[in-house]
Amino acid sequence: MSDIGKVEPVEIIDEMKRSYLDYAMSVIVSRALPDVRDGLKPVQRRIIYAMHQQGMHHSARYQKCAAVVGEVLKNYHPHGDASVYDALVRMAQDFSMRYPLVDGQGNFGSVDGDSPAAMRYTEARLAAISDELLRDIEKNTIDFVDNYSGTTKEPALLPSVLPNLLLNGGSGIAVGMATNIPPHNLGEVIDATTYLIDRPDATIEDLMKFVRGPDFPGGGSIFDVEEIAAAYGTGKGKIVTRAKAEIEESKTGKYQIIITELPYQVNKAQLITRIAEMVKDKKLDGIADLRDESDRRGMRIVVDLKKDGRPQSILNNLYKHTAMQQTFAVNVVALVDGTPQTLTLKMILGEFVKHRQIVVTRRSQYELDEAKKRAHILEGLKIAVDNIDEVIETIKKSKDADVARVNLMQKFKLTEIQATAILDMQLRRLAALERQKIEDELAMTLELIEYLEDLLAHPEKILAVVKGELAKIKEKYADERKTRVFRDKIGEFSEEDLVADDACIVTITETGYVKRQDLGTFRTQRRGGKGVMGMTTKEEDVIGQLFTCRTHDKLLFFTDQGRVFSLKVYELPEGSRQAKGQAIINLIDIEQGEKILSTLAISKKDGEAKFVMMATEKGTVKKTAITAYESIRRSGIIAIKLSQGDSLCWVRKTSGEDDVFIVSENGQSIRFSEKDVKPTGRDTMGVRGIRLRKDDRVVSMNILNRDEKKADLLVVMDKGLGKRTQVGEWSRQKRGGIGIKAAQLTERTGKIICAKIITPEDESLVLTSKNGQIIRLPIRNIPRLGRATQGVTLMRFSGPDSVAAATTITKDDKASPEEFQKEPKPVKKSVKAAPPKSKTKTKTAPKPKLKPKPVKKPIAKKIQKKTATKKVKNPATKVKKPVLKRPKK
C-alpha cells in the first residue's frame, strides 16, 4: 500500500526546529560564509568557474557581464540575478578587494558609493591572479558535486594556490553568526605560510613577524599591535583604522589638511557631506573651505583652514567625529570541512597548508596514473617500431582491424590498449627521427613516474612542492604594503587630543560657579584704573578664586570639608567676561553646602613637585606626597582631617626643599622651611603653621624656592591698595610663631585680601572685585616698598566695592592677541583738556562699530603702476574715520 496522501500528526515545535535548522545550515554553508581553503563563498566560486568554462581568462577578450550572470543562473546558482551581479561587481572593485579576481571594463561603481552600470553594459573577464585559483582543476585535484538541477557538475571548492581567505578577506551575515575578515598583503601571508610549513609549532608572535597586520586596498593606517595580535590569536578583535591626512601650508600662508587615503569601505562622498554638515551646524570650527580634488591619479580631499584655526586640533576633531577614524571589528568565521568555526591566524594558514597538501597529492597521483598510461602506450609503440616489418605483415594478413588487434596482441604479447595505439599510429612515425622521439619520450615518462612515486611516498617532499609554488606566486604577484601599521595604541580620542593647550584664567565664585576664559580677554592697563566688567555674578555672590593655568592641566578641587575632587581644565565651561559660568555641582559630585575653597593646578611639566602643602584658615599646615592624589574617584577622596570650625583654604605644590610663607588678614606673616612639616598621609590633621591672634585668620599661603633671591611678596588690600616687598626682609624662623608685620593696615587700606610670591617670570597681575570688575596691570608698575608700608592704589572702584581675588600671569602664558601683551602708550596731557562747550559734542570711539574696509597695499601699488601718467589717489585715503555724535541735550 502506498504512503502517498497519508497524513501523520507532527508536533509543531519539532517541525519548526527541523525546518529552521535546515534553513540556517543552508544559509551558513551555501550562501554567507567562505570556505577556509579557497576563501570563496559559493556564489563567488560559481562565478569564477562559469567564466573559466566560458574561456573568459585574462588573455581572452572581454564579454558582457550579462552572459556571465546568465551562465551562473542557468547551471549553478538558483537565486536572483542581482545577487550574482553584485558579487561579480565586488570582485572587480579595486577599492573593495585587495587583489581583484575579476577584470572589469565599464562602470563598476566608485569609492563615492556610485552604483555600477547595468550588467548589459559592463564587460568582464577573469583577472590573471584568478588563474591561480583554478590551476590544475582538471587534474582531479578537487571533488565535483551535482548542481541544483542534477544536469551538470560544479566544483565543491577550487584548488587555489593562493591563501585567498586572508588575501581578500570577506564579510557575511549568516543565521546566528557573521564573519568579517580583513584583507592582507600577499607577500607577507606567503612568507608566514612558508615559515609555518618549516616550523609547525610556530606561535602567533612568530607569524606576526611576517604578517604585520591587515593591508586594506585603500591604504590608511592601523594602530595597536597588541589588539592586532589579540585578533590573530583569538579570531576576534577591534582594530582602529585611520585615514591618511597631512597638514600642509598653502602658498597664501594658510594651512590645509590633505586627505589622500580613507579607512576600508568608507564612502568618500558621505564623508565630505558629514564634514560640511558639522561646519554648517558649528560643531566644527576653524574650517574655511572643503573640496574634492580626486582624479585618476588618486584621492585628494582638501580642507582649507581659517587663519586662526588650529590644524592639529581640527584634524583630531575630524578623526573623532567623522569616518576618518573607524574600528574594524575582526570576526574570522569560515567553513572548515563544512562546519563554521572561529579561526586564528595559525589555524587559517594550517588549514590552507593541509588543503594544498591534498591538492598536490591528488594532482601527483593523477599525473602518475596518466604517466603510467602513456608509458604503457609508448612501450607498445617501441615494440612495434623495433619489429616494424613483422607488425606490417601481421596487419596486412588480418581480415579487419579487430582481427589485426587480436593478432598483434597474440604475436607480440601486447595489451588491447597497446595494440589499438599501434593500429592508430601514423606512417610518418616510422621515420628514424620519429622513432627516436618515441624512445626519448618513454625515457622521460619513466623518469617522471619514478619522481612522482618518490614524491607520493614522502609527505615532506610534497610540502617542499607547496613551498616552491608559493615562492613563484610571491615572485609574480607580490606588491608593497598599502596600509601603515603603528605600534601605539590609539583607541578613542580623549578631549585632551581635541583641545589646544592654551593658557587661560579660571574663576570660581563663593557660591560655586566656575568658568574658564582666554587670557586675551583682558588687555593690560595702567595701575589705578577701573578695569572692565568681568563675571556677572548672581545676587549676593562674589568671586572667591582667580588663577591662571593651561587647558591640559589637571585641577584638584579642595573643599571646606577636607575632600578633594579632580577635573581637567578643558572640562570646565568656557565663557565670556560677563558670563557667570556653570555651577560646579554639575561637574563634580560635591554635597549641598560644601564649598570649593582651594584649587590646585597640576601640569605635566611639574616634574620637580613632590609634595602638596595645605593650610587652613586657623593656621594649620600639612604636607602630603603628590602621588597620593593621582587617582581620584568621582565621589572624591579625603585630603585632610579638619578640626571643628576650621576649613581648608590653600593648597600649593612643593619640591621638599622650599620655604612656606603664610600671611594673615590682619597683616601678620611668617616664613619657615617646609622641612619643619613632616609628610603625612591624606587622612591626617597636620600641625600648627602660624599662631594667630584673636579675630584673625589666614588669607594666603605661598611657596618660595629657597634659592630664589629676586622674589617679592605682593600684598593686596581689599580697598584696592597693594605693594611689593623683597622676601629678604623676612628671616626664616620656626613654624608655629606669631611672625612679623607684612603691611601697615589702616582704614584707608582695609584688611589684606591676598598675598602672592612674585618672581621675575610673573608679568602681570589680574584683580577682580566683588561686583565683578576685573583689571589687568603690569607688575613692573607696582612699586617695591618696605614691610611696614600701606602701598599704592592698584584698582579704583565705581561705587561701594572691594577686591575679591587676585592672580598673576607669567611670561609663558601668552594671550592670543599680541596687543594684549603690550602696555598701552601713555595718553598725552592735551587730551585731558575740557571739550568745547557745544550742543553736539563729538569723540572718537576707541573701537567704532563701523570699521572702514582696509585696502591691501599691493592693490594700491598696482593701481599706481597702471596709472603712471595720471594721478590717482589711494582709495584708502578716501575713507573717513567715523565719529559717534552725542545726543542733543
pLDDT < 50 stretches: 814-889
Give the integer mean of the pLDDT values.
84
Which second-level CATH architecture of the largest domain applies?
A: 6 Propeller
Proportion of strand residues: 15-25%
Spatial ordering of strands, largest sheet = 14-9-8-17
Q: If you consult CATH, what is the topology of the largest domain?
A: Neuraminidase
By oligomeric state, this entry counts as single chain
Estimate the global geometry from the Cα principal axes.
Answer: elongated
CATH superfamily of the largest domain: DNA gyrase/topoisomerase IV, subunit A, C-terminal
Helix residue percentage: 25-40%
Gyration radius over CA: 44 Å
Distance between the termini: 122 Å
CATH class of the largest domain: Mainly Beta
Q: How many structurally independent domains?
A: 4
Structural class: alpha+beta
For the report, how would you describe the main beta sheet? 4 strands, mixed
Number of strands: 43
Account of the 3D structure:
- It is a single chain.
- This protein is α+β, with helices and mostly antiparallel strands and 889 residues long.
- The protein folds into 4 domains: 171 residues, Alpha-Beta Complex (Topoisomerase II, domain 5), CATH 3.90.199; 80 residues, Gyrase A, domain 2, CATH 3.30.1360.40; 123 residues, Topoisomerase, domain 3 (Orthogonal Bundle), CATH 1.10.268.10; 321 residues, Neuraminidase (6 Propeller), CATH 2.120.10.90.
- Helices cover 28% and strands 24% of the residues.
- The chain is built from 19 helices and 43 strands.
- The protein has a 4-stranded mixed β-sheet. A 4-stranded antiparallel β-sheet has the order 10-11-13-12, covered by helices on one side. Strands 21-18-19-24 form a 4-stranded antiparallel β-sheet, with no helix packed on it.
- A hairpin with a 5-residue loop joins strand 10 and strand 11.
- Helix 7 crosses helix 12 and helix 7 packs antiparallel against helix 17.
